[in-house]
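Slide 14.
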Amino acid sequence: QVELVESGGGSVQTGGSLRLSCRASGYKIGAYCMGWVRQAPGKAREGIAAIDSDGDTIYADSVKGRFTISKDNAKNTLYLQMNGLQAEDTAMYYCAEGGTYGVGAGPEATCHHEYIDWGQGTQVTVSS
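Slide 15: predicted structure.
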């Protein structure tokens, strides 16, 4: 059974940091493109970062330089290190699996293939 489980969300003050984790079961993430997608209330879903099997990454302009996507294949876990958090980063964050074709070419920061499996999400709230 394929499953993605996010954790690490919470409430932080502006300028703070969080690290999100996404543990996968049912397949090995090392062979796949994986990504993070967020959705704020009343806003469209936004792909913010993706990483493929070769370690190539892509980031949305809104998070570039502040967020870092990584993965530990041995732990079968995807991460998102978020630094310099701002109020506009408040959203539900989802991890997702996007096939084996690598990261997309932009402008949205996603995998080349549409996301297939999704986690349940973890809430990030940033306040001043």
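Speaker note: The chain is about 0% helix and 45% strand.
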